[in-house]
Amino acid sequence: MKEDLKDHWETIYRTKLPNEVSWTQEIPTISLDFIHKYSIPKSAKIIDIGGGDSKLVDCLLAEGFSDVTVLDISPSAIQRAKERLGKDADKVKWIVNDILGFHPTDKYAVWHDRAAFHFQTDPEKIEKYLEIVKKAVDGMVIIGTFSVDGPKKCSGLDIKQYDEDGMKETFEKSRFINLECKREDHITPSGVVQNFVFCSFRKNDVPANLKKSW
């Protein structure tokens, strides 16, 4: 099944340009706002889950963040991001893996996931995702998913919709404390509106100001 999923995303990234996929976003404003609000230092470890060829990494490097990791199941997606970044790609740690097969060896100050978590639709897979997050995070989590007013599928795959309460319940039971939730109307390259819910959390043993052992 994992190979089927990998093949699915490889086909998409090999056959579609950025302006032909719905998730393309020139500036990930809400994600950056959360990072800026909590004064994450430039040296902090940040990982973008399902980052593909997202431009969050471009923005973080441009702002001087020096320890950024991008994980994606698709080698083609990561290659596309590397080619776009040029020599700056060497400043990033790239991981080709399905998130559920990820065995983190680092502790991250920021775990960012825009529209990868909502592909976990089975309770067992959701729980496995949360266990990986708990092991990997030593700071904050930023999660963006389709809201209950958003699409029910993405790229032909089923997703799990969330509202603010559902997102809070899911992460709070794993001992994360909610910081904030926001809605966003994402305008796709084709002009379609997709409603997202974004929530940020901190690990329960991290001080409220998030300043721990960056």
Outline the secondary-structure elements.
Elements: H1 2-15, H2 29-37, E1 45-49, H3 56-62, E2 67-72, H4 75-85, E3 92-96, E4 108-114, H5 123-136, E5 137-146, E6 153-154, E7 157-158, H6 164-172, E8 176-187, E9 193-203
Kindly list the characteristics that best describe this protein:
28% strand; single chain; 6 helices; Rossmann fold; alpha/beta; two-stranded antiparallel sheet; 7-stranded mixed β-sheet; 214 residues; 30% helix; globular
Describe the structure.
The protein is α/β, with parallel strands linked by helices and 214 residues long. It has helices spanning 2-15, 29-37, 56-62, 75-85, 123-136, 164-172; strands at residues 45-49, 67-72, 92-96, 108-114, 137-146, 153-154, 157-158, 176-187, 193-203. It starts with a helix and ends in an 11-residue tail after the last strand.
Average pLDDT across residues?
Answer: 91
How would you sum up the global shape?
globular
The CATH C-level name is: Alpha Beta
- Strand arrangement in the largest pleated sheet: 3-2-1-4-5-9-8
Q: What gap, in angstroms, lies between the N and C termini?
A: 37 Å
CATH topology: Rossmann fold
Element string (H = helix, E = strand) = HHEHEHEEHEEEHEE
According to CATH, the homologous superfamily is Vaccinia Virus protein VP39
The strand count comes to: 9
Task: Please tell me the CATH architecture by its name.
Answer: 3-Layer(aba) Sandwich
Radius of gyration: 16 Å
Tally of contiguous helical segments: 6
Biggest beta sheet attributes: 7 strands, mixed
Q: What fraction strand?
A: 25-35%
Structural class: alpha/beta
**Proportion of residues in helical segments:** 25-40%
User: Which runs of at least 5 residues are low in confidence (pLDDT < 50)?
Assistant: none
| Domain module count | 1
